[in-house]
Amino acid sequence: MFDLKPLFDDIDPNSPLIIAGPCSAETEEQVLSTARQLAAKGIKIFRAGIWKPRTKPGGFEGIGAEGLKWLQKVKEETGMKVATEVANHEHVRQALEAGVDLIWIGARTSANPFAMQEIADTLAELKYDVPILVKNPVNPDLELWIGAIQRIYNAGFHRLGAIHRGFSSYGKHLYRNLPQWHIPSELRRRIPELPIICDPSHIGGKRELVAPIAQQAYDMGFDGLIIESHCDPDCAWSDKDQQVTPEILNVILNTLVVRDEKITTENLTMLRQQIDEADNELLEILSKRMRICREIGQYKKEHGMTVLQSNRYDEIMQSRVKLAEEMGMSGDFMKVVLISIHEESVRQQLEIFNNKA
Ligand code: PEP
Ligand code: MN
After folding, report:
1. Has residue 217 got a pLDDT over 90?
2. Neighbour-count burial of 296, counting CB atoms closer than 10 A to its CB (0-12 exposed, 13-18 middle, 19+ buried)
3. Could you tell me if the CB of 230 is within 6 A of ligand 1?
4. Residue 282 CB neighbours (<10 A)
5. Residue 137 CA: which ligand is closest?
6. Which helix H or strand E contains 266, and what residues bound it?
7. What are the helix (H) ranges across 155-267?
8. What is the value of pTM for the model shown?
9. Are residues 218 and 309 in the same domain?
10. Number of domains the chain contains
11. Is 135 in the pocket of ligand 1 (CB under 6 A)?
């Protein structure tokens, strides 16, 4: 269905595509210093956000077109290719006119079909032959992701790839954006010829998660990585917790194991990752349930009620066991789980009752 071309003729499509650079271009000095250090480590494609889509107004919204001049200097001085994010007609025009070698579309933009069509129309109108990477939309919607890719493809751009940067969700999690690995895996199944690279920086949101997530991506046969790297991460103007120095990036890249055999979706690693995700969700739900229990405990204490109310307990047991059976699980197994959860809930409520405060 998709007749794709390699992203770059002078970069081997069989070895991982590595893109690195700061979340944002901040100053000329920060851009050039980071770029020089990355080039010295053998990085071939430099990234830097010029226009930054921030959740709330008041944050650093990017240096704007001025930063394009710094990217030109990076090209001239280091010979690296340069990449930036575009989100509308003007970004595309200015980036391409400034000689940007690769553009990517961010997660908030790929979730918006109007913006995607505007970008596709601009690309078609300007006719620069540029490779384009489309990040997954912030919400876990594979069809929306494919739709965004299709709009660019239909505009006549066949040097295309996807970036998996995880999916946002409400509440506190280990990851900044949940990986939901089965979604890029399904994208791979649907469009096998499309290169998919992983963005462990935005998935993890923390420096220490970059390496393990990057390794998972390699284990699953991803085609490369885009990693945020900054000459002085602690002082970064955006995403400081997830950026690594070029030195650390180099260590990470050298310790990653690149598998020769690409792993299929049925593979054990993939299934184990799904189990890990399911367990994380289970733990989050359990801790939420315990929190609510403690709130109920407080309420009962304040209203002179007893901890144990047997009709409520019976009702919970019966309805959950029935539901579990309808979901194909054993009722006996569910009773054991519920008894154990209930015991812990009672223990937690008694703790609140015994607390004199
Ligand atoms: C980025 O790459 O800096 C960025 C803004 O990423 P995302 O669109 O994935 O949030
Ligand atoms: Mn970022």
Report:
1. yes
2. middle
3. no
4. 10
5. 1
6. none
7. 182-190, 200-204, 207-219, 246-255
8. 0.82
9. no
10. 2
11. yes
